[in-house]
Records
---
Amino acid sequence: MATWTNNELARIERADELQMEPVRVDGMPPSSVPIWVVRDGDDLYVRSFRGQDGGWYRAAVASGTGHVRSGGVDKDVALVAATDGVVNDRIDAAYRTKYSRYGARYVDPLVASRDTTLKLVPR
């Protein structure tokens, strides 16, 4: 299994947004969507601001794969559901810390959408 390099992790962690392009199972070209990304140890995670209704999220779950660009890193990824409660507690804290300057209006929906947490696994 591939892993992120320390350089890739640091560059993506410093970036405000990540461009997500989930592979679409209907054969249509993927759309690029800017989303927030957080780091937990050697792993990167994303969530859907719109919860399970988010279009990019539905496409990501359907295919389980995508492409991301952030901080000069350009990678194909597997998108793996993160259901561990302890990990999600850390992800909640990471979102609150990294994006606190945007206020509760934006951060609270991401914390509330923990059932959409996806781990980005390089391929």
---
Amino acid sequence: MAAWTNDELDRIGSADELRIAGLRPDGTLRDPVTIWVVRDGDDLYVRSFKGRTSGWFRGAQARHEGRVDAGGVTKDVDFADEGDASVNERLDAAYRTKYQRFGPQYVDPMVAPAAREATLRLTPRS
């Protein structure tokens, strides 16, 4: 399994926004969507504030593969559901800290139960 380099983790983790595109069943990329990204140790995570019904999230679930672009890094990735409660608690804190300047009207939906259920770990594809 491939791992993020420290440079990639730093650049993507510090970027305010990430563009994400899931792969369609035929292997072509969906249109990219801009979302927020947080770092937890050596892992990167994204969430859908609309939960599992969001279009981009459903697209990511089709093949669990796609491409991300943030901080000057473009990478093909695998998407893995994250259901660990302790990880989600750390991610809640990461979202609150990183994006607090946008206010609770934007941050609160990212730490709500629906968003927590739509959390994906990004892993670089080798």
---
Amino acid sequence: MPDVVSVPPEAKPAPLFSLDLGANGGVLAPRTSDELSSWIQKEVSFWTWLGNLSMGSHHEAATQGYRALANAIGQFNEALQYQGSNTSAFNERLANVKLNLSSAYLTHGLPHSTSKLARKVEQLRQASPQRALAYLFTQLPNPNHYQFEARDFQSWSGFIEGLAERTKIADIPKSALRAATEGVDELRTKVEHLIAEKQGELDQLHRTYADLTQSMANKELHRTETWDRFIEDAGKRHEDAIADHEQRMNNIESVFREKMALRGPVEYWSKRQDHHKDYAVGFGILSFILIVMGGGGLAWWASRVFGAIPDNGNPKAWQLASLVIVAVFLTWAIRLVIRLFLSHSHLRTDAAERVVMTQTYLALLEENKLAEEKDRTLILGALFRPASDGMVKEESIPHPMLEALTRLGGKS
């Protein structure tokens, strides 16, 4: 059977810090952040009720230790932000935590939750927090620096009980006890006068509260009436909005129908515009080419016809006639191409105008600016007017030119 080698337990981490509280909590040496957090949270939860009281100077003395404890947990939360990322800042916050805990439990004498004094204070707190606070005040290390301020019997009860335990008042002579009792009676009388005075103030507060309640009731009634009027006005505005919406929807429906009806003409005239634009560009280029080439060709023909004539000789009739005929036919062809160019330009402009007029008509319909029938009739009449074909009449060779050629032929 093989030997079984026992694995030693894992070593515990070193304490974050060590703080000796003596009889007031023992030695605090947390090894992890969770352990320290649990320790502080338990103490804060135990003494939270101190922060909810406001009783005067003696409350200030009793809560100094609690405030130091609260500062300790604040420093601890800051330390957690630097844990694992900034060791120096983490250790600095932990030092502040230790300093605040020392101030709370050693300097200001805040009892640890497990101490006998803390359990006695907790018993008194369950009966009366004021009594527990006054009792705790008498047990602080240096309560003489603060004045005891109390106006209720519970606080005085806790104060006297604490004094009796701290000063051993039960051992004082009876004469001194009798004098103290008379002082307490006198104090009780003053307290009763004070209570009566505060009762009057409380009654005045109740009357003020009643007046405020009535005022709030009146404001609530006014608010209800205002709300009802608002609802009524809102309902009316809603109805008007619905009516306006229905009217606008009817207008939109009408415009949609008109638009669908005019969609075909718009597409047709748009295509015609592109068609005539292409032809206009083509005939314009052709006109330029004919002018350039025709001029060059006419010059070439003149050089051939008149090139063989002697210097002092006269041109023959057929030579002049041929030159004139070429020039006339060339001019006629160029004029015809130019007129075709102008015709297509005119038809393109006419088609573009019809597209624009149709779109303008639809926009006016959408804005409800053609309410009268005569306006719509006028626009539709201009929109659907008969279109000219834009074509020029076919030209032939001018008759006067034929007569001139006939005369020249007769003379020859």
